[in-house]
From TrEMBL:
GO terms for cellular component: plasma membrane. PANTHER family: PHOSPHATIDATE CYTIDYLYLTRANSFERASE. One of its GO terms (molecular function) is phosphatidate cytidylyltransferase activity. This is Phosphatidate cytidylyltransferase. It catalyses: a 1,2-diacyl-sn-glycero-3-phosphate + CTP + H(+) = a CDP-1,2-diacyl-sn-glycerol + diphosphate. Pfam families: CTP_transf_1 (PF01148). Belongs to the CDS family. It is found in: Cell membrane.
Length: 269
């Protein structure tokens, strides 16, 4: 009994690792090539995330998820064509393009309209964040922070176990895994500081990026639990859908964009 329980605990590890390797290879190739390859990766990922998100909230046969996914992909592409904003300009065409898919969902959906707009906009802001970080060191460190937090949380949660973090929303997540994710991110931040990548203050804030990623994961889990599904789709073996794999990065990247925008407004004033 214990042997079966132990083996089932790790049953998803093999497909999860193999899928992660494949995704990492694609990401590394796109980042290495940069330019159009990197832009294509971000456009496809954000488009698929929006499509999956819309399918969760609007599961009945409808064209809305496809249209929203295409609108999201086009919006990210348009936002890459020039400066996002000029000094003194509140709304530019690039900024307006980010709102098309979320507004479309809020207007055309027959339920969950506020969620369509709010989480849809977070997906678009995350796409903007990926473009801003670009295929360079900032993006590499960002990805390492999220992966380190996720891996540390995954193994600590299954080895240590203990009290659940938020059982009504995400029954598999434990406090041990959550805290291990923060510690893993902090260690990575300290390593970055020792290499001159982060200042001491930035290194201290690295766990907050991990926390935003964890909250992105929690938010997506809450949406899936609300609509009664396990995965956002079955596109990725061992991970479910694209949104299941990128939910943490969407939370963290979206939070970074919002914080950067707030900081710009504060210092501009």
């Amino acid at each position: 009994m214990n042997s079966q329980s132990s083996s089932s605990k790790w049953a998803d590890l093999a497909p999860r690792v193999l899928s992660a390797i494949a995704m990492a290879a694609i990401a590394v190739a796109a980042i290495w090539l940069g330019g159009a390859a990197y832009l294509a990766l971000i456009v496809v990922v954000i488009g698929l995330c929006m499509w999956e998100f819309a399918r969760l909230l609007q599961p009945t046969p409808t064209a809305l998820p496809i249209v929203m996914g295409l609108a999201a992909a086009v919006g990210i592409f348009l936002s890459s064509l020039g400066p996002i904003n000029a000094p003194g300009v509140v709304m530019s065409p690039q900024i307006a393009a980010l709102f098309v898919a979320p507004v479309m969902g809020a207007v055309l959906a027959n339920r969950h309209r506020l969620l369509f707009f709010g989480y849809g906009l977070l997906i678009m802001l995350a796409g903007l964040g990926f473009l801003a970080m670009g295929p360079g060191p900032a993006l590499i460190w960002f990805i390492l922070i999220i992966i380190t937090s996720d891996v540390a949380g995954y193994f600590a949660g299954r080895i240590i176990g203990g009290k659940k973090f938020w059982p009504r929303v995400s029954p598999k997540k434990t406090w041990s895994g959550t805290i291990a994710g923060w510690i893993g991110a902090l260690i990575l931040g300290l390593i970055g500081m020792s290499q001159g990548v982060f200042t001491p203050l930035e290194a201290a804030f690295v766990p907050l990026i991990a926390f935003a990623g964890q909250m992105g994961d929690i938010a997506q889990s809450a949406i899936k639990r609300m609509v009664g599904v396990k995965d956002s789709s079955n596109l990725i073996p061992g991970h479910g859908g694209v949104l299941d794999r990128f939910d943490a990065m969407i939370g963290a990247a979206g939070a970074l964009v919002l914080l950067a925008g707030a900081g710009t407004l504060i210092f501009a004033g």
